[in-house]
Specification:
The complex is a heterotrimer of chains A (341), B (449) and C (140). By secondary structure, chain A is α/β, with parallel strands linked by helices. Helices cover 42% and strands 17% of the residues of chain A. Chain A has two domains: 7-122 and 305-321, Nucleotidyltransferase, domain 5, CATH 3.30.420.40; 132-299, ATPase, nucleotide binding domain (Nucleotidyltransferase, domain 5, 2-Layer Sandwich). In chain A, the strands form two sheets. Chain A has a five-stranded mixed β-sheet with strand order 3-2-1-4-5, with helices on both faces.
């Protein structure tokens, strides 16, 4: 506790990023340190440690100390530790979980394991202080395209997920085919603005009626075949048109299903999350669809959409408040179902 | 100074408390799959055994590697977390020289950890006052830590022991001892007194040695938190943010190719290969009795299916002997499967059945076996045996379906792969029909009654 | 060996058949451009191993584990990695000597970490749409 507020230290290391954050009363961010975005000079005064992607063991103590320092608190003030315990890469997850357990044991602090997806959804609570369940959540990222019905903070149901390539992956792959470089999503977004999204009709796969699942590998293949055929025929490609048309075929399906889910479950709020939430077309389509259907639309700022620990801290806070707490035998789970809990 | 030791680099993980008067309390986990889950509870319990709290600990010593990548991470991340929380210094203990901490003078400590594919993470050290190796005081490096072919490392150790007069004994530590015991034994001729064997095994014949050689007894042979704590006591700990893991990753010389090219073994055939097609699913397969003329085709098929295929001559011998061999041909007349039973002293032995990989999963092996069994039945041979690799699941299932049962096992029978062979028998006057026919004849019998 | 695979159905047959041969510790490398069907082949291998879970692209997660088959299946996609060192960072190297089967898409990116004697399948586009040529060999 500090200044009468309940402090949660969140730790995230499920894939690329090593991150730590301190939040007050769940939603107020006191610090949000992410390994790839750290301003190392100011924090470490000159000596630049090697901070690279997935160097979790090297980064973990630095991000934790950074989070405590920036929040102006010490470990003694921390009331709860939240850590992503799955799903993700085992070699990455275990660094965060091991460090979190050590802190919990040493400081005699309760610890809560958080599902990475639950973290993404919770980013919206930070971004919109007035947002409360129930609502429909859509998480769109490199590895996920999920629609979740959020009944309550700890009562969530996965309505649909990607059956093959996630939206972000498909974007990255098409970006590569078009020679746009990595990361592909933002590049496709930028290039698409110069193109005509109706120039080419890439098929949309909506799957069976009533399904909230997604399948983008068909579209991906369609675009690749189109590009290959045109190249073989010696035709010049209009990359901007391809990017725009491809992007539309993906984002349109996501927006449609998201709104359909909100309507079916009677939700008047729809929250977007995940790295692809930054996509301008997706945001525009969702805003339009929500407005047309009387649904309130929420979307956090970019830094909360990509992997970070503030969202984990927030999710942990609400889990703890509802009485969920884990023991010192908490384990990392590379495969972790998104159960209702 | 009370030291907390942590080791998660080997198969078992452990935690230990080393008190100021040298007493050790240690616990270990036997569950190699759950290092992460069990470590903190184990540390808590070890502190309890020692009657101390985390606040009484002055330094944390953690094994920094080499060893299991995930293991190293679990230990080091935990140690960093504890050190951060308590504001304690951390000693990252290199495992290989760590084995030498506290060893008696005159002993060459040879640490070898399995690095797979015939190699070991290894190094050799002796106790030496005033010296230091890899940050541990009181130890001298004799062979630097690195990745070595197992046999080569052992030779280096014995060579050093022979050269250095102060070495009176050589002791081997680490799971490399278990994994490469043959390589070690062959270079030591352990227990061999005859001259012949001594020559066969080279210069390190037992009777010429000026030193004794032993394997550390199992209770001391592997990494342990207690040993880590002891070694850590002889190190200068530092700030936890500066402790690095010891991976001993591949050196530049080990990297085979540049620019991400997967090297491919040259195939035996010519470079301009014909592009084959998947055979149609409904292709008709014909089965016929094989003759000695099929030897060449069988040898070729065998060579394609198995690491050590039979030669054409071996097949000729079998085909000309008292046997029944079956050839399965595709529509183009190419032999795509074979199998056979050889008769000796009134018993039958099923030779292996091979099917071209393009034609698997079509029941061809079963059909071949059926014909062989029928032939045996017609000849009145009722006891039939065969050998099969223990890991050849699908073959074992097939043979069982024909009434074969496992009666024995030959260890390391298949030398190339160090696999065991299962000896299966079908005995008695039971049906040599296929399972379907057995079921049919059972029904028939019931009907007759 | 070079094999002409005419359509998705043949991809599936090939994958099912290959799965029968796989033992613990086997590594299968799949190399080929985007869209050549590395994941489709992996799905067929998974089916052949009796995996009931849906195989999804591991591009972002780098490795996904499936335990419902007769052997654990570790499906890698190292597209996002810069080289074999990054594979060691995430502890993936240990899967290769483990208790299951590893299928590695884009294995050429982490070539140095691939065990000798692993199966290698290079997939190329064929002369007609849907057709692929599998070049099957062993790594050295």
């Amino acid at each position: 506790m500090k200044d009468g507020k309940f402090l949660t230290l969140g730790i995230e290391s499920s894939c690329d990023e090593t991150a730590a954050s301190v939040t007050a009363d769940g939603r107020q961010v006191l610090s949000n340190i992410i390994s790839s975005q750290i301003d190392i000079h100011t924090l470490f005064g000159g000596v630049v440690p090697e901070i690279a992607s997935r160097k979790h063991l090297e980064n973990i103590d630095k991000v934790i100390n950074g989070a405590l320092e920036e929040a102006g608190v010490s470990l003694d003030d921390i009331d709860l530790i939240g850590v992503t315990h799955g799903p993700g890469l085992i070699g990455a997850l275990l660094v965060g979980v091991a460090a979190a357990k050590a802190l919990a044991f040493a400081g005699d602090i309760p610890i809560v394991g958080v599902h990475h997806l639950h973290g993404h959804i919770s980013a919206n609570y930070i971004a919109a202080p007035d947002l409360e369940p129930p609502f429909t959540a859509v998480v769109v990222s490199g590895g996920n395209t999920d629609i979740v019905d959020v009944r309550d903070y700890n009562d969530l149901e996965l309505l649909g997920a990607s059956r093959d390539d996630a939206a972000g992956e498909a974007m990255d792959k098409i970006a590569r085919v078009l020679g746009l470089g990595y990361p592909g999503g933002p590049k496709i977004d930028a290039l698409a603005k110069q193109g005509n999204m109706h120039a080419i009709d890439f098929k949309r796969v909506t799957l069976e009626k009533g399904s909230y699942d997604f399948s983008f590998s068909g579209v991906k293949t369609h675009v690749i075949n189109y590009v290959n055929t045109e190249r073989q025929a010696g035709n010049e490609l209009n990359n901007a048109d391809i990017a725009a048309s491809f992007q539309l075929s993906i984002m349109e399906v996501i927006a449609e299903k998201a709104v359909a889910a909100a309507k079916e479950y009677g939700r008047d709020k729809l929250a977007l999350a995940g790295g692809v939430a930054a996509n301008s077309l997706l945001r525009r389509l969702m805003e339009e669809a929500c407005r047309a259907n009387g649904i309130e639309f929420y979307r956090p700022e970019p830094v909360l959409c990509t992997d970070n620990a503030a969202m984990i801290s927030c999710a942990a806070y609400y889990k703890f408040k509802a009485g969920h707490v884990d023991g010192l035998d908490l384990d990392a789970k590379p495969v972790l179902d998104f159960d209702r809990f | 100074m009370i030291i907390l030791g942590i080791d998660t680099t080997g198969e078992l993980s452990s935690s230990a408390v080393l008190t100021e008067d040298g007493k050790i309390y240690e616990r270990h986990s036997d569950d190699r799959m759950n290092h992460l889950r069990d470590l903190i509870p184990m540390i808590r319990d070890t502190l309890g055994d020692a009657g101390v709290s985390l606040g009484d600990i002055g330094t944390i010593a953690v094994s920094a590697g080499p060893g299991s990548f995930t293991g190293i991470r679990i230990g080091m991340a935990t140690a960093k977390g504890l050190a951060l929380a308590q504001g304690l210094p951390l000693a990252g203990v290199p495992v290989l020289p760590g084995f030498a901490a506290g060893s008696p003078e005159g002993t060459l400590v040879c640490s070898m950890l399995d690095a797979r594919r015939g190699r070991v993470y290894a190094g050799a050290y002796t106790s030496a006052e005033g010296a230091e190796a890899e940050g541990i005081r009181g130890i001298r490096e004799i062979i630097p830590q690195g990745i070595y072919p197992a046999g080569e490392f052992v030779e280096k150790c014995l060579g050093m022991a022979a050269d250095l007069s102060e070495i009176k004994s050589v002791e081997f530590f680490g799971n490399g001892v278990d994994r490469y015991s043959e390589e070690i034994a062959s270079r030591l001729a352990l227990g061999q007194a005859d001259d012949d064997k001594a020559e066969e095994y080279g210069d390190y014949a037992a009777r010429k040695r000026s030193y004794t050689v032993s394997f550390a007894p199992p209770e001391r042979r592997y990494q342990s938190a207690a040993q880590t704590a002891l070694a850590g006591r002889d190190m200068e700990p530092c700030h936890y943010s500066r402790v690095e893991a010891v991976y001993l990753g591949r050196t530049e010389a080990e990297k085979k190719l540049e620019a991400h090219e997967l090297g491919v073994k040259k195939s035996k055939k010519a470079e301009e290969e014909e592009i084959m097609e998947l055979p149609p699913e409904d292709e008709k397969i014909t089965y016929r009795r094989a003759t000695a003329e099929d030897a060449a085709a069988f040898a070729e098929l065998d060579g394609a299916c198995f690491a050590k295929g039979w030669s054409e001559n071996s097949f000729t011998d079998e085909l000309e002997a008292d046997s029944c061999f079956v050839a399965a041909e595709n529509e183009a007349g190419r032999v795509i499967g074979y199998g056979g039973v050889t008769y000796v002293a009134g018993e039958g032995e099923i030779n292996r059945i091979a099917v071209d990989r393009m034609y698997r999963m079509r029941g061809i092996a079963g059909n071949i076996l059926k014909i062989c069994m029928e032939d045996a039945g017609n000849r009145g041979v009722t006891d039939i045996t065969l050998e099969v690799r223990e890991s050849n699941r699908s073959a074992i299932v097939l043979y069982k379906s024909f009434g074969f049962e496992v009666e024995g096992r030959r260890k390391n029978y298949y030398r190339e792969t160090k696999e065991n062979a299962l000896i299966m028998w079908k005995r008695g006057s039971g049906d040599s029909d296929s399972p379907a026919e057995q079921a049919g004849s059972e029904k028939g019998k019931a009907g007759e009654e | 060996m070079k094999l002409r695979i005419k359509n998705e159905s043949e991809t599936r047959r090939f994958g099912l058949s290959l799965a029968q041969e796989l033992e613990p510790g086997d590594v299968v490398c799949l190399v080929g451009d985007l869209g050549t069907g590395k994941t489709a082949l992996t799905k067929a291998i998974a089916e052949g191993l009796g995996v009931t879970e849906n195989i999804i692209s591991p591009t972002f997660n780098i490795v996904k584990e499936y335990h419902s088959g007769r052997l654990p299946l570790y499906h890698f996609d190292v597209y996002r990695l810069g080289g074999p060192e990054e594979l060691y960072d995430i502890g993936a190297d240990e899967y290769f000597d483990g208790d299951g089967v590893c299928v590695v898409e884009w294995a050429d990116i982490v070539a140095e970490a691939i065990p000798e004697g692993s199966r290698l399948i290079r997939i190329q586009y064929g002369s007609v749409p849907d057709e692929r040529i599998y070049d099957i060999g062993e790594t050295e």
